[in-house]
Specification:
This protein is α/β, with parallel strands linked by helices. Helices cover 44% and strands 18% of the residues. It contains 18 helices and 17 strands. Strands 4-3-2-5-6-8-1-9-16-15-14-10-11-12-17 form a 15-stranded mixed sheet, sandwiched between helices. Strand 5 and strand 6 form a beta hairpin.
């Protein structure tokens, strides 16, 4: 039952609601994407008090000042390492140089040469390889992960870490407490019992120094001795940890100078939680291959949305073909416009998504874009049987990107993510071959058939799309 506007309480409440609505017009658009701005303003217009409370809780995509200060404190450390990593030989073409320059300005790290890159899309194979590398560690082991479970897979990795500790090898683990919420207490207990230094990434506290619960560290970086690094989409959990859903991932195993950049990202994240810098001058590994690789960390610590900025620009620059693989595709207007313009220039675009879904609302929002994409001439492939959780992009046979970032507002603006850029022909061709296998195991959507789906499904999709910028 509503409050009578003529009652003693009604008039002040009405005035308060209008103050909130008018104030939102000045505050909400600041540092927000247009899509998110529209959604927040609609919510506050219709439910001003509830909308204000939600906005104060999760509406501002930035870290608190104390965390920003810690991040800036390590700026000299990152700059010094970047100078040590600068290659004496420039990349070949102007486009490669432009990409390298943009990524360095976005994330701080230069292109490195002489890297060994191995693509691993065997889920269990990644875990086995990681355990073998931990068992061979001589200096240290450092893991940063969104999900670290206490299941058979998590225990297998924990036992390897325990064996390393028993050999006198220091081991450090950063784990996101929200991503790992189902297991976090037992996982931390098992790790600490094994002698592993363990911290929560972005822990949430009601009092004192705190960050938003929905701004997460979504990176997956596994580092051994500063010589071997893993990056990609895979967590430390059984591939079928969700009932009825089996994950398919893509992980890079890296050797060479790029590992120093990966190490620096871990060291920075560890410092942000502990104010302890584990290495003053990380070792730069010797060259071990031919790959030209560059790391792009992104997240609220950085001035721009790094992965999104790079992706939109490269879609605008594409001339032949783009293949984009993502489990969650909820794009902003800038990316949609870039994709439509690319097709009009004659660029072929293949979007590979998963038919199997683990996030119902996100999946509904994603489905709401299919008709628009198909109508624009973009091919949409739905991967069968498994949840294709891999995140990767190939463009024109000259650029490959593999990492942790999805194509949605959460990865673009709220989460800490990390991507590896590859510009050598061998690495790009390797990713393209994997993407061809994805397409061979997918169903191509037909526009006419898609339009015939039920009106109830369309309504659910459109409602999910409306609230997607708030997710």
């Amino acid at each position: 039952m509503g409050i009578d506007p003529l009652s003693p309480l009604g008039t002040p409440l009405t005035i308060c609601e209008w103050i909130i609505r008018i104030g939102a017009l000045f505050v909400v658009p600041l540092r927000r994407k247009p899509e998110a701005t529209r959604s927040w303003l609609l919510l506050i217009l219709f439910l001003p008090i509830i909308g204000l409370l939600l906005y104060l809780a999760i509406g501002r995509p930035r870290f608190p000042a104390w965390r920003t200060a810690r991040f800036e404190r390590l700026a000299p450390f990152r700059r010094a390492l970047a100078l040590r990593l600068l290659s004496g030989r420039a990349l070949g073409g102007q486009q490669s140089k432009d990409i390298a320059a943009l990524v360095k300005n976005l994330g701080g790290w230069p292109t490195t040469r002489g890297n060994g890159i191995e693509f691993i899309d065997d889920y269990d194979g990644v875990i086995s390889r990681l355990v073998d590398d931990i068992d061979q560690a001589r200096q240290h082991v450092r893991l940063l992960v969104y999900i670290f479970a206490d299941d058979a897979v998590g225990r297998k990795v924990t036992e390897a870490l325990g064996r390393a500790v028993d050999r006198g090898i220091p081991c450090h683990v950063l784990v996101d407490p929200v991503g790992s919420h189902s297991w976090i207490r037992n996982t931390i207990r098992l790790l600490r019992d094994a002698g592993v230094e363990t911290r929560k990434a972005l822990p949430f506290h009601l009092l004192g120094k705190r960050t938003r619960r929905d701004m997460r560290n979504h990176r997956k970086l596994f580092l051994i001795d500063g010589e071997i690094g893993y990056a990609g989409s895979q967590n430390i959990v059984a591939k079928d940890f969700r009932p009825g859903v089996t994950n398919r991932e893509l992980t890079l195993r890296v050797t060479g100078p790029l590992v120093a950049e990966m190490t620096a990202v871990f060291l920075t994240d560890w410092y942000l939680e502990t104010e302890v810098l584990l290495d003053q001058e990380p070792v730069v590994p010797s060259k071990s291959g031919v790959a030209a690789a560059q790391l792009l960390p992104s997240g609220p610590d950085y001035p721009l949305e790094g992965f999104q900025t790079l992706l939109v620009w490269q879609v605008h620059e594409a001339r032949v073909r783009i293949v984009l693989t993502t489990p969650y595709f909820v794009p902003d207007d800038g990316l949609l416009g870039a994709m439509r313009a690319a097709v009009l220039r004659g660029v072929e675009i293949d979007l590979i998504v998963s038919a199997v879904a683990d996030q119902p609302i996100v999946n509904l929002a994603q489905r709401s874009y299919y008709e628009e994409l198909l109508g624009a001439g973009i091919r949409v492939h739905r991967f069968r049987k498994e949840l294709l959780h891999a995140k990767n992009v190939s463009i024109d046979g000259t650029l490959a990107i593999v990492g942790s970032s999805n194509v949605d507002i959460r990865s673009f603006q709220l989460n800490d993510e990390v991507s590896v850029l590859l510009q050598d022909p061998i690495s790009v061709a390797a990713l393209e071959e994997i993407q061809r296998r994805y397409i061979a195991n997918s169903d191509l959507l037909d526009l006419a058939q898609w339009r015939d789906r039920s009106w109830l499904g369309k309504l659910a999709e459109n409602l999910a799309r409306l609230v997607s910028p708030l997710l």
